[in-house]
Amino acid sequence: MKYILILAMIAPMISGQFYTQTEQKGQSEKTKQMEQITPNGYTTFKVSDNVAMYKVTFKNQYKMNVAGHLFIPKNLDQNKKHSAIIVGHPMGAVKEQSANVYAANMAERGFVTLSVDLSFWGESEGEPRNAVAPDIYSEDFSAAVDFLGTRPFVDRNRIGIIGVCGSGSFVISAAKIDPRMKAIATVSMYDMGAANRNALNHSQTLEQRKKLIAEAAEQRYAEFTGGETKYTGGTVHKLDENTHPIQREFYEFYRTPRGEYTPKGGSPELTTHPTLSSNTKFMNFYPFNDIETISPRPMLFITGDQAHSKEFSEDAYKRAAEPKELVIVPNAGHVDLYDKTDLIPFDKLEGFFKTNLK
Fold first, then answer.
1. Do 197 and 283 contact (CB within 8 A), yes or no?
2. How far apart are CA 53 and CA 263, in angstroms?
3. Gap between the Cα atoms of 26 and 20, Å rounded
4. pTM, whole model, 2 decimals?
5. 82-88 and 65-73 strand pairing
């Protein structure tokens, strides 16, 4: 009787393990396929002929499909294991824009690179579209490590990460609890939590913050009862004499051929705009808390000397433990470092990752 009872207790465990192993095997089999694509139509800039580009999809821990572009140097020996870098796009953007600029250029320098669409954005899954979910955004980067670390041509102990603008804060959040990210770099970083709580240079009062929170909370009632989804923030769609200089800076990238991109199934009217009812999730996002615990993994913070967002990189650098470095690019604004390859310090990034992903 005792043996029957023990078997009865063990059977569900064995069954569960078998299901998990089968599911994991299925996930591995599904992600083995890489669809090679031409950069035409998938980037807002020219990709070197020395780099092959692939469309990939993998699941995050919440079983949501995350879409990515994998860049591999054409002369890379795929029978050996190599270092790799994940790249995250600015908040409200998609991989086809600045993330691909960094991924393609770093691939040309010898790295396997992967740019991703954050959940709820671009080609990645998530409803409603353009929802704010910073914890899931951070999870997407860990899922990208899962994907790269199981490729036969990637050394899972040599994976680094680059976060551009808002993704800078998401990769820091991810790296704090994922030691597989061996070297972390941010460019033109926005702390999306501080930016929403306090605005730039702490220019937003507590009363103004509470007003935003109240509007978002009221909008939840409207959407819960079937009302129209409302959007907030993002980049303006036209300029006038009253347009703020920072909005003009974003407009020049997101609303002109320089960087404009509307993902399949999206609309130009909604690109860059998060949903109003979810945007307050950033109020509870504190990515720089415990940033010092990332040490001894190295961190590199890159910002422009004229960047309106410089305060966030300086704050992160001050809080981080060694090894760390702050690079301030002369004559560069915030958006300049999205795509202006003559200003982006690619030599510095190459040296940083080659040194720390040995």
1. yes
2. 18
3. 10
4. 0.90
5. unpaired
Token pair in block for residue 28: 């591995």
Q: Which amino acid is at 59?
A: K
DSSP alpha helix (H) spans, the chain: 2-30, 100-108, 134-149, 167-176, 192-198, 206-224, 245-254, 276-279, 310-319, 336-339, 346-356
H or E element, residue 162: strand 154-164
State how far the Cα of 30 lies from the Cα of 201, in Å rounded to an integer: 46
- HSE toward the beta carbon, residue 64, CA cutoff 13 A: 22
Sign of the Cα torsion 181, 116, 32, 30 reads positive
135: tokens are: 């914890």
* Whole-number Å distance between alpha carbons of 158 and 354: 10
Q: Which residues neighbour 181 within 8 Å (Cβ) at sequence distance 6 or greater?
A: 86, 141, 145, 159, 160, 161, 171, 174, 175, 297
Please give the DSSP secondary-structure letter assigned to residue 275. Answer: B
- Round to whole Å and give the CA distance between 153 and 299: 25
pLDDT in tens for each of the 358 residues of the chain? 444 444 444 444 444 444 444 444 444 444 446 898 888 877 777 788 899 999 999 999 999 999 999 999 999 999 999 999 999 999 999 999 999 999 999 999 999 999 999 999 999 999 999 999 999 999 999 999 999 999 999 999 999 999 999 999 999 999 999 999 999 999 999 999 999 999 999 999 999 999 999 999 999 999 999 999 999 999 999 999 999 999 999 999 999 999 999 998 899 999 999 999 999 999 999 999 999 999 999 999 999 999 999 999 999 999 999 999 999 999 999 999 999 999 999 999 999 999 999 9
Helix/strand/coil for 256: coil
Residue 37: what are its φ and ψ, rounded to 5°? -130, 160
